[in-house]
Amino acid sequence: MPAAPFSKASWANCAPSKFAPLRAMNISPGKMARVSVLKEYLIMEGSPRTKSPPAADNITVSLMSAVNGSLVESQTGILNTNGTISLNFTAAVLNNSYYIRIKHRNSIETWSMNPVTMIANASYDFTTAANKAYGNNQAEVEPGVWAIYSGDITDAETNTPGVLDGIIESADYSQMENDVYLVSSGYIAADITGDGVVESADYSIMENNVYSVISVIRPF
Q1: pTM of the model
Q2: pLDDT computed for residue 31 by the predictor
Q3: Helix (H, G, I), strand (E, B), or coil: what is residue 102?
Q4: Residues contacting residue 208 through CB under 8 Å, at least 6 positions apart
Q5: Distances, alpha carbon 177 to alpha carbons 105, 144, 192, 203, in Å
């Protein structure tokens, strides 16, 4: 059974956070899959593996065609503060190879460097090196620990908050400035740190990534 959506109430119960890696990934086609993923600036303060409650946020893990990049199967679940998530993929993907795509509500869409063969209990770890992500599109958040980028919080073309356009740039920065000024709170995209309020810490993360013009890098 798919995980229930992450609720605003659950988010409000989480302790303030600092940063966030997508960790190792174990997929068991046709049965429960255990995925570890770390996102830039979302690990809870202190030891992330002992925090309670364990839920951090929703992420979506997709299997993408190795031929043309089209979507084959996608599952959404709750990422825990220890960097793990449990998902079910159908048996139809077994023994086939796919790119793994990760999506999160305020992060840059990230793909695996190469297609991964979906044998039973297949594993993939994004965090051990930048080149585990396609185009080396990750940030080193601790020595030897890599994470997907945070800060894609609005669509520049439509100025729609919460709609990702695949690049961290001025539109995201403007939205962040507005939310910081209003001291916006709750389960919203601009709250990058995950502490329930948009303030200077979120702004600082955005500023660094806007300066670097971080964008999605896909194989197709």
Answers
A1: 0.82
A2: 53
A3: strand
A4: none
A5: 18, 32, 13, 7
